[in-house]
Write a structure and sequence with these properties.
There is one protein chain. By secondary structure, this protein is of the alpha/beta class. The chain has helices spanning about 40-60, 95-105, 115-125, 185-190, 190-200, 210, 215-225, 230-255, 270-280, 285-290, 300-315, and strands spanning about 5-10, 15-20, 25-35, 65-70, 75, 80-85, 110-115, 135-140, 145-150, 150-155, 255-260, 290-295. The protein contains eleven helices and twelve strands. Strands 3-2-1-4-7 form a five-stranded mixed sheet, with helices on both faces. Strands 10-9-8-11-12 form a five-stranded mixed sheet. A hairpin with a 4-residue loop joins strand 2 and strand 3 (about 25-35). The structure holds zinc ion.
């Protein structure tokens, strides 16, 4: 019997990753390449086509690729499959990505925001499996988010729903790339960990971090696990600020589960207690007690699996 398979891709400003995925979420084959930096959308579409051909040729002969889901680092018009705004890939702005790729590859194509896709992936096969209302937060260079409420991903009329990273937690705080100040992204991302560690160094002359030349989020975490007071303070701030933002979301959305992923979630042991304390302190008692705050399970594959899930839904 012929087995249905979909292609799924995670398209970011640095890497383009793709996989052939079966209906159980099994990754049959993976391919990846650097995202072309010529800022020419034709070249980017060609890269996608080349990887899709590689995946198609690599899967067993009794499998057929029937649809294609893409998770893109962009604001999306989901219904039209159009890229509204991709800050790191401006060549895609306004492009009907779904229509362009359907023509090239010959299968239906869905396009979703990458953090929303990751929320869908974790909801399908990961930490929030089987849960109707969940929030996914990813802590990387920035803070991204995806929200699923009563089984439906929130996208909003302009595709910007779920931009958790730009919840204000410090009105007179650090300037953010979005034009506002004090966004949680400026306090709880991997970038923020390094900034705060740098800024606080002068108050901690004995910090282990002072002796190390290079400051990375991992160094700060390692120092914190060794009891370094500067590093512990950085993660206290990171967790507290994220907790302030999540307390608002708990009150507004009443989720069953909040899933936290991304590279900086590796600092979990150093920030989670402070995060939970802020949620308990600020949110209504009942939704705060209900909302389980847990780590993501799918790592880098959450977006690809969410995109695959959407492709299967489109087929159904
Ligand atoms: Zn912002």
């Amino acid at each position: 019997m012929n087995k249905g398979v979909v292609l799924a891709a995670d398209l970011g400003g640095t890497n383009l990753r793709m996989a052939a995925v079966d209906s159980d979420g099994g990754l049959l084959y993976r391919a990846s390449t650097a995202t072309p930096r010529s800022f020419d959308h034709g070249e980017l579409l060609n890269s996608i086509e080349i990887l899709s051909r590689e995946c198609n040729e690599a899967i067993p002969g009794d499998h057929t690729i029937e649809a294609f889901g893409i998770a893109a680092a962009a604001v999306i018009d989901f219904d039209k499959g159009r890229i509204r705004n991709a800050p790191n890939m401006p060549e895609l702005n306004g492009l009907d990505l779904s229509a362009e790729l359907t023509e090239k590859i010959g299968v239906p194509v869905t396009v979703e925001n990458d953090a929303t896709a990751a929320a869908i992936g974790e909801n399908w096969l990961g930490a929030s499996r089987g849960v109707a209302s969940s929030i996914f937060v990813t802590l990387g260079t920035g803070v991204g988010g995806g929200i699923i409420l009563n089984g439906i991903p929130l996208r909003g009329v302009d595709g910007t729903a779920g931009e958790i990273g730009h919840i204000c937690v410090e009105p007179a705080g650090v300037a953010c790339g979005c034009g506002s100040t004090g966004c949680v992204e400026q306090y709880s991302s991997a970038t923020a960990i390094m900034r705060m560690a740098n800024e606080l160094q002068k108050h901690y002359p004995d910090s282990l971090l002072k002796q190390n030349g290079e400051l990375t989020p991992l160094n700060v975490f390692d120092a914190g696990m060794n009891g370094d007071e500067l590093a512990v303070e950085v993660f206290r701030r990171m967790g507290s600020y994220l907790g302030i933002a999540l307390a608002d979301l708990v009150n507004v959305l009443n989720p069953e589960v909040i899933v936290i992923g991304g590279g900086a979630a590796a600092g979990w042991e150093l920030f989670i207690e402070h995060l939970r304390a802020e949620v308990s302190k600020r949110a209504f008692k009942q939704p705060a007690e209900r909302a389980k705050i847990i780590r993501a399970q799918l790592g880098n594959d959450a977006g690809i699996l969410g995109a695959a899930r959407l492709a299967f839904i489109k087929l159904a």
